[in-house]
Structure formats: structure tokens, C-alpha cells
Design goal:
Layout: E1 6-8, E2 14-18, E3 26-30, E4 36-39, E5 58-61, H1 67-75, E6 84-87, H2 97-106, E7 109-110, E8 132-137, H3 143-149, E9 158-161, H4 170-182, E10 188-191, H5 195-200, E11 206-209, H6 211-222, H7 227-251, E12 256-261, H8 272-290, E13 294-299, E14 302-307
Parallel strand pairs: 4-5, 5-6, 6-7, 8-12, 8-13, 9-10, 9-11, 11-12
Antiparallel strand pairs: 1-2, 2-3, 3-4, 13-14
Amino acid sequence: MPDGRELTLLTGHRVRAVALDAPGTGYAVTGPEGQRLLYLPPGGAPAGLEQPAESYDMVLADVVGRPDALARLRAVGAVGPTTDVVAVHLDHGLPPGPELGRRLAAAGARAVPDGVTLVVGAYEDVPDVPRRTLVLGGARSGKSVEAERRLEAFPDVLYVATGGSRNGDTEWSSRVAAHRDRRPGSWRTVETCDLVPLLEAEGPPLLIDCLSLWLTDAMDSAGAWDDAVWAERGEKVLRERVRELTEAVRVTRRTVVAVSNEVGSGIVPSTASGRRYRDELGRLNAQFADECEHVLLVVAGQAMVLRG
């Protein structure tokens, strides 16, 4: 069928060909009683979407291969809170069992065995996307990739970079560029450590990368590296900053995915300031995790669910 063409079948179903940004054709089907289904072929995402009159009841799509397709549908309201999103075109290159289910649930989707009959419009227990998630891991563990994966099926994500820019540091610039290049083009970026106002405001999901750099900035501001300042007022100032942050996470209405380093499992820092940072980051991670529905630990690229 040419893109945009609609056929009416003898059964009363209406089938419309949906234009894609890749070879192939998608199909939007409306049943005799008004139920609406969208099917997208592997590797395809809708092109030229406009605000629809209502959400689809069911969407069958390549959720893993093209998460941006789901993001586009959400952006125009074609996928809503009650849409049953079923992942199709799943192959043997994907992780098996519970890990696949976890990844799909993060996108608000589910998988079903081959041969299952799906009833469009029937109530399904659509996976709830965790509103607050903390992703922990060591250096180069894959924690940032895991955090980004959790929101790539959602539009208008605000990426909060707490590390900022470092003039003249080419290695740091390369790291920042690598992060930026793998993010969806629709995401926006803000460089700030002032997280509380963002958490208090209404808006799209936040991806905060990372809490360990936020803590470095907070300890700088508190004078925490100086033993005398720390004993006199620095510890109290830092505790108040952490309390303000965790309280803002507790009451935020936004979807939040935060990244932090898990330290202290290996070499003991040789300086008092290094040990102080290690201890404070452990405390921050624990307090932040207490406010999250979902907590993950990434080791060697493998995500282990600690909560959720």
C-alpha cells in the first residue's frame, strides 16, 4: 500500500499505511468498535507524525532496535499511559529472560511468547516506568550507558551534566563528546550542579550524570578538603546540601535517572581528604537510593537490580 492509503475491509477494519523513515511500511488498524493498533516493521520509525486525536490501544514495535520510534510516538500522544506496548522483532542477540524483561519494562513495554493471541483494547498490566532510579557502578562499568538506555524511549529528556567543561583538557572534552554523540538528538543538555531547582520544577525526565561530580562541587563549596574548615563548619554545610538534594528527590514529580560512582571497594585513599570524599559519596549514594523506587549496580556492563 502507498503511504497514507487507507483500505476498508469487509470485516469493518480500516487499515492505513504509515510512512516510515526507513524502508518498509507501518500499518495503523482501526477495528469495527474503534480500537486502534499500530504495527511498525523492524528498524522502522514513523515519519512526519502529527498530533493524533487519541492514543493507540496497542503498539507493536521494535522497542529495542528503535527506541526513538517509541519516543516519537510519546511526543505526539500516540502512545499514552494506557497504551499496551508490545516489543516485536526480538532476536537471539538480545539478553535472555529477566534481563530482557527489565529493559523492556524501563521503556514501558512488554514481550509475549510467539503464537500468543493479543486482544486489542483488553486491559493489560502495563509496566510502570520507575519514577526515580539510581544507577551505580565503577569507572567504565557501563553505568552511563545503562542510565541513558532507560530514557531513550522517551522524548524531551533533559541531560544534566554536573561535570561542566574544562578548558584545555582534551581528554575530558573527548569523554564529553562521546556521551553527547550517543544521546538521542531530541535531548537537551544543561551543565549545572544546582539540582534542587530542576527537581522542584515541572518538566521532562531528568538524567543526572553524575552525583559524584555534584558531590565534588558541593565539597569544594563547603571547604571540605581543609581539615580545620571541615571540623569547624564544612561537615555541617555539606550535610545540609545533601539533605536539600534528597528531600527534593523525595517530592519531585519528574522522572529522574541519576548516575553515581560506587567507590570504596578497592584501594584505600592515601590522604585524609580522599578518604573523606569516599565516605561522603557512600553516604550520599545511600541517602539518594532511599528515595528511589529502582536502584541498579552495573558491573562489567551487566546491570544488577538492587531494588525495584
